[in-house]
Amino acid sequence: MTELKGALIGCGFFAINQMHAWNDVEGARIVAICDRDPERLKVVGDQFGIDRRYSDAEALFADGWFDFVDIATTAQSHRALVEMAARRNIAAICQKPFAKTLSDAKAMVEACRHAGVALMIHENFRWQTPIQAVRKALDAGAIGTPFWGRFSFRSGYDVFSGQPYLAEGERFIIEDLGIHTIDIARYILGDVSSLTARTKRVNPKIKGEDVATILLDHENGATSVVDVSYATKLSKEPFPETLIELDGSEGTIRLTQGYGLQVTNAQGTTTTDVSPKLLPWASRPWHNIQESVHAIQQHWVDQLKRGAEHSTSGADNLKTFALVEAAYDSAAKGQTIDVGAMLR
């Protein structure tokens, strides 16, 4: 089939990974880039050989000649850019967090639905090789019916050195990291009916919370705990690994530090190395996330060509976004929140 042409809006910190991944994706390539910062535009344009460069998104869309747009900007600009793409009948990938508010996110989904164009959120964590391995083991019936889970990302890694803006927001770890971990919980154990959350700020140099513990009640009766921290100093730094524990009616699954997948059931215990690949342009310890960027972008292209729904479509991600909002609401009120009511 014809190669799809894409445009990237936003040439910041994480967009470099997306550009590298687009170079490796089969069936698509980036033909234009856009950023308000002329220096970033030049750096990315020169590095990846992109001649079409824009400082204004309206001008980019006016010129056209691309099939999809990859929006790699911050949440404040997402609604305007997604709706701009919908008006031009251009399919869109949008970086997480999806929007600043749930109402904005719902409006973006509706705009793309009305225009008949695909919208996918760049929720790449569920596409990590070890997370996919957990899902495959579960789908194969290795532990029967799961009834309990824990999804943990606890680290003392200095994320603020590379992304200093993270220290400035009133919200931090749930919105930036917990959103991924919650999405993994949904992906593995299904949708959530209610949740209870507690947060804490340990680092006095930041404005938002850097620790969160969230109890999820899943619609299928399972219970899980999502716990995330950037204030946890360990003898062996696990960043950026998500660790998973699952208990089922016929056994257990443990995704341990160092990418070991341990499955215990009536046949005994097996341990498998589910380490991600170190792509030529990737670097440790980021390679786990970098590989997942390539995986989700390949998924985007494959599904777009098939005309099929994406795993992290805008409609699907509304459910993850609602859990983020519910977590902040629960922590503020000290109450359990009915998630279903937020989506109605």
TrEMBL record:
Keyword 4Fe-4S: no
Keywords: Plasmid
Entry superkingdom: Bacteria
Stored InterPro entries: Gfo/Idh/MocA-like_OxRdtase_N, Gfo/Idh/MocA_oxidoreduct, GFO_IDH_MocA-like_dom, NAD(P)-bd_dom_sf
A molecular function (GO) term: nucleotide binding
Gene3D superfamilies: Dihydrodipicolinate Reductase, domain 2 (3.30.360.10), NAD(P)-binding Rossmann-like Domain (3.40.50.720)
Domain named Gfo/Idh/MocA-like oxidoreductase N-terminal: residues: 6-121
UniProt-listed Pfam families: GFO_IDH_MocA, GFO_IDH_MocA_C3
Location of the GFO/IDH/MocA-like oxidoreductase domain: 131-254
Descriptive protein name: Oxidoreductase domain protein
Organism annotation: Rhizobium favelukesii
